[in-house]
Design goal:
Blueprint (H helix, E strand, L loop, with lengths): L9 E3 L5 E3 L6 H12 L3 E8 L2 E6 H9 L15 H11 L27 E6 L9 E5 H14 L9 E4 L6 H14 L2 E4 L5 H10 L4 E4 L1 H8 L14 E4 L6 H10 L4 E8 L4 E6 L1 H4 L8 E2 L4 E6 L6 E7 L11 H7 E2 L2 E10 L5 E6 L4 E3 L2 E3 L1 H9 L4 E11 L3 E10 L7 H9 L10 E5 L13 H7 L3 E2 L1
Parallel strand pairs: 3-8, 7-8, 7-9, 9-10, 10-11, 22-23
Antiparallel strand pairs: 1-2, 3-4, 5-6, 11-12, 12-13, 14-15, 15-17, 16-17, 17-18, 19-20, 21-22, 23-24
Length: 468
């Protein structure tokens, strides 16, 4: 079993959960320590436009935060419809709503000095692809454990010098928990893009002296394929993370070449794990790009196997970063959190060395005449083709087999590839029964919800299948 991360200073409690020793008592205590050490350091840079920025130091951020403090935070997806936003506000029981552009309250300063690790600190509503989202209750311990996990796995020096560019939404656990809060703990600076623009992304890397990047694979592919990328000074980037979608092995190599001084790694997690649960570190990124790496130092993993000894099943996750349940959803909580374990809904394989490979979402698995076909595994095989930009695999109803495998493939701009050629490429990587029998080639990007997940329900409705 490979153990690439620092395992020191960890104690397992009577509840069998492993915890980091010496964590701060709360996020407030964590931020107070940062203010005392790096109070004059730049904390946040908000990019208003190419010519305008808003900048605050840690001491100023502390003073501003104290005037609006004292509640459980409920980040709301800024791209929600009015009905979706109203659902989150109503379901959470929120009493105050702050909107972009509106003035924040300016009350008497308040500092909460009595929070415990088990206290709720925020509710992140999951970006489910069907139905209304569920509110994952994130505790003080969940936040703090994720910060320490990121520090150890990347690894990051908490020296007050890191400058992180946030190009993903702050209402999502990646941007908030694994970028912003990690920077806050280490006295670094978080540079926030209000919306993603690839040219602005490239400009900020140099202009803001960015040393840390985290985004989805598609963003890096888009950035690397800009005509002016060669003029971008990437030498200052020391840490680069990706995740949230399958990545083509050749793109991992291209990223490493394009950011020669960066440690490159792949993170995997959920709102229910307060962000990161596993991580594929730099030394293993080229070796096993189809995996999401190893369990975090305080995370335990198990498989609920479909067949005993198969080595494949639903991924179960246990750790101090796992949320205690869903807000106002007792039935969903009982179904998802069982005997201290989170039932992730992801189908996975864990090999003898500890590498975790996500095969599929449990509900997205295709049952082809009694044989399980993991969509994510097929997507990875197809995405490795040099002409494929992104791909979604889903079941196509079939009278005889129940379901057959279909793939919606988006090709890279300016590249042409025959379906026969792409499928032949995939046959060298996966079993014949997993090869798509229906294919649609399209130029426009796949539809996604505001959290970035592909809307497979919409793809099923809109797909124009061609028999392969």
């Amino acid at each position: 079993m490979i153990r690439p991360f620092d395992q020191s200073g960890i104690t397992r409690g009577a509840d069998q959960i492993a915890r980091y020793d010496g964590l701060a008592a709360s996020l407030v205590e964590m931020l107070r320590a940062t203010v005392e050490t790096w109070g004059d350091h730049e904390a946040v840079v908000e990019i208003v436009s190419a010519s305008e920025t808003r900048r605050v130091t840690y001491r100023k951020m502390w003073d501003l935060a104290a005037r609006v403090a004292g509640a459980i935070a409920v980040p709301v997806n800024t791209r929600f419809t009015e009905a979706e936003a109203e659902y989150v506000i109503t379901d959470s029981g929120s009493k105050f709503v702050f909107q972009t552009g509106s003035a924040l309250p300016d009350g008497a300063p308040f500092v909460d000095g009595h929070s415990r690790h088990s206290d709720a600190a925020a509710i992140f509503y999951t970006s489910g692809t069907t139905g209304f989202p569920k509110g994952a209750i994130t505790t003080q311990e969940g936040f703090l454990s994720n910060v320490e996990t990121c520090r150890r796995m990347v690894p990051l020096p908490f020296d007050g010098e890191t400058r992180s560019l946030v190009s993903v939404p702050l209402f999502h656990v990646t941007g908030c928990n694994s970028q912003f809060l990690v920077c806050c703990a280490g006295g670094g600076c978080t540079v926030i893009m209000p919306k993603f623009d690839v040219q602005e992304f490239l400009r900020l890397i140099g202009d803001e002296r960015i040393s840390s990047l985290t985004s989805v694979p598609a963003v890096y592919w888009l950035a690397l394929n800009q005509k002016n990328f060669a003029q971008v000074d990437t030498s200052g980037v020391r840490w680069l993370g990706y995740g949230g979608a399958p990545i083509a092995p050749d793109l991992v190599g291209r990223i490493m070449d394009a950011f020669p001084n960066a440690r490159v790694g792949n993170g995997f997690g959920l709102s229910e794990t307060s962000s990161v649960a596993t991580y594929l570190p730099h030394e293993h990124s080229k070796l096993r790009p189809e995996t999401v790496g190893f369990a975090a130092p305080v995370v335990d993993l198990q498989l609920d196997e479909f067949e005993k000894g198969s080595g494949e099943g639903e991924l179960l996750i246990r750790g101090p970063n796992v949320v205690p349940g869903y807000w106002n959803k007792p039935e969903a909580t009982r179904e998802t959190f069982v005997d201290g374990w989170l039932r992730s809904g992801d189908i996975a394989r864990i090999d003898a060395d500890g590498y975790v490979q996500i095969l599929d979402r449990k509900k997205d698995m295709v049952n082809r005449g009694g044989e399980n076909v993991y969509c994510c595994e097929v997507e990875n095989a197809l995405a490795a083709h040099p002409a494929v930009f992104e791909v979604a695999v889903l079941g196509v109803p079939d009278a005889m087999m129940g379901e057959k495998v279909g793939a919606v493939i988006v090709t890279k701009p300016g590249m042409i590839a025959e379906v026969r050629e792409i499928l032949a490429f995939a046959r060298e990587r996966i079993a014949d029964f997993k090869i798509p029998q229906y294919v649609e080639i399209r130029e426009e990007l796949l539809p996604r919800n505001p959290g970035g997940k592909i809307l497979k329900k919409k793809l099923r409705e809109d797909a124009k299948w061609v028999r392969a």
